[in-house]
Amino acid sequence: MIHFKNNKLTVQVFTDRQSMGTNAASDVAQTIRELLRNKDEINMIFAAAPSQNDFLAELIADSTIEWNRINAFHMDEYIGLEPDAPQGFGNFLGEHIFRKVDFKQVYYIQMTKDHFEQECERYTRLLSERTIDIICMGIGENGHIAFNDPHVADFNDKAWMKVVDLAPQCRLQQVHDGCFPSLNEVPHQAFTLTIPVLMSATYTFCIVPATTKAQAIYNTLYAPISEKYPSTILRNKENARLYLDMDSASLLPEKYRIINNNS
Fold it and tell me: How would you write the chain as a 3-class SS string?
């Protein structure tokens, strides 16, 4: 494993995505245990994407976690899919974690086809009543975090949740990930939590494997911190950790890509 910091962001590079997921899950579980020593319950926000599969599988396998003291949220959701569509992020998380363990409460974003403002208000109210303790997230091919694509990203957004038009590269990523068979079937709009909400968590764990994310990771660490590269804001975040495999780290300087197995 390689460990370094860029600004405030801690970065760890692992040999493969399985070890990346295992280590990220171990760190999240440890943080959960530490928080629950001093709090009756905590609140977590999860990302829904195939990039999170290894991490989520390891996390739900940890028998030390008191899930019944954790409230769960997710950070984005498509607009226009049928309620039972497997591509829906609530449904994805239901399959991979929300229905696998006994959370105190799971708060789903509704895949409504109308009443967008009311849904944003409802979810904002739920979040604003709580402290966000932990966010587990990824980074998109275009550097988005949640569905804050470059053209809608706002580091000073006043909203908590909003409706956005998805960028073409973002929609194409959903095809690359195998979530949709063709671009025509990917929704054009989605709900997303905004960047200030994502940045408000006490602890942030960002899990990003795969070659398709290599350019986004390079930009995250070395591009100017700006909405043009939304994920660069993570470099300003205290208690933020970025987990990579060798594929997603493949464009980083060589010293961050050669892992000594004895380290």
Answer: CEEEEECCEEEEEECCHHHHHHHHHHHHHHHHHHHHCCCCCEEEEECCCHHHHHHHHHHHCCCCCCHHHEEEEECEEEECCCCCCCCCHHHHHHHHHHCCCCCCEEECCCCCCCCHHHHHHHHHHHHHCCCCCEEEECCCCCCCECCECCCCCCCCCCCCEEEEECCHHHHHHHHHCCCCCCHHHCCCEEEEECHHHHHCCCEEEEEECCHHHHHHHHHHHHCCCECCEHHHHHHHCCCEEEEEECCCCCCCCHHHCCCCCCC
The pLDDT tens digits for 117-145 are: 999 999 999 999 999 999 999 999 999 99
**pTM of the predicted model as reported, rounded to 2 decimal places:** 0.95
List pLDDT tens digits, range 206-261: 999 999 999 999 999 999 999 999 999 999 999 999 999 999 999 999 988 776 55
